[in-house]
Amino acid sequence: MPLPDLSVCIVNWNTQDDLSQAISSVLAADSGLALEVIVLDNASEDGSPEMVRTRFPEVTLIEGDENVGFSRGYNRAARETSGRYLLILNPDTVTHSGALKTIVDFMDSHSDAGAVGPRLLNSDGTIQYSCRRFPQPMAAILRNTILGRFVPGNRFTREYLMADWDHNAIREVDWVSGAAMCIRRETWDQVGGFDEGFFMYAEDIDWCLRAQQAGWKICYIPQAVIDHRIGRSSDQRPIPMVVEFHRSMARFYTKHYAQRWPWGVRLLPLLGIWARAMLVMFQTGLAEARDWMRRRSAS
């Protein structure tokens, strides 16, 4: 029996409605490809596993007994796949018609591409900066410390986000978002899966960097389009996710960049990252308190 062309892996945590739409859009994407779809559920309590079993019997469902996060979840799902390519896909996505075929055709014709990312759109149709350059020290400082407030729109941040480019052409890039990333099986086997030291956030940057170090190209193809509603799982636990985001940024910096800095200044980016985390946690907690007060006043 021939291998599937594409193995679609989705890790879910309490996003039943989004997950249903994501699976439906994949199955209806008019791809003409041999697909397999694997859903790993991270101990959801909203009926997600039951929905998958009932509505999508053709989908392979893996039920976890705890929330193991993004990296471990996708690594576990990938071990159950057999396709020529892996599509790492968030449950808060909607795949446009023809997107999957466009991705596979590109990979088939570009044997040096280890991974590709499609064009990701916000709910209002605007573009997400889903392909970026690797973070450099100045960009990290200006994005992760209060200094960025004094120089908004600075060139270091714009270069990191690739905001100096219209995102309308195929292009080799440093990394693409793990919200929708297609990976060549050979590359996955050579590079390995996601670093499970990242619960979520930055594992996609880390993986793309390791793939490039192994000699593979990372590409962006805007002809394949997927909608992405950012943060549908993480918004359920905003403050813990703020902590997790900054922990991942600190881990990425320590793993890949700290050794490049002189000893006397190696701690500065880490201090900046955690100072920013404290500020964002305070702002998030204040916003949640205001929402609670409004709801209480309205009841």
The assigned structural class equals: alpha/beta
User: What is the level 1 CATH name of the largest domain?
Assistant: Alpha Beta
Q: How many domain units?
A: 3
What value does the average pLDDT take? 87
Query: How do the SSEs run, as a string of H and E?
Result: EHEHEHEEHEEHHEEEHHEHH
**What coarse outline follows from CA principal-axis ratios?**
globular
The low-pLDDT segments are none
C-alpha Rg (nearest Å): 20 Å
Question: Distance between the terminal alpha carbons, to the nearest Å?
Answer: 60 Å
**Mind telling me the CATH superfamily name of the largest domain?**
Spore Coat Polysaccharide Biosynthesis Protein SpsA, Chain A
Number of E-state strands: 11
Strand content: 15-25%
General description of the model:
The strands form two sheets. Strands 1, 2, 3, 4, 5, 6, 8, 10 and 11 form a nine-stranded mixed beta sheet that branches. The model has no long low-confidence stretch (mean pLDDT 87). The longest helix is centred in the last third of the chain and has 32 residues, at 267-298. The chain has ten helices and eleven strands. The chain folds into three domains: 6-129 and 167-229, Spore Coat Polysaccharide Biosynthesis Protein SpsA, Chain A; 134-164, no CATH class; 236-298. The termini are far apart. Helices cover 42% and strands 20% of the residues. The protein is of the alpha/beta class. The chain is globular.
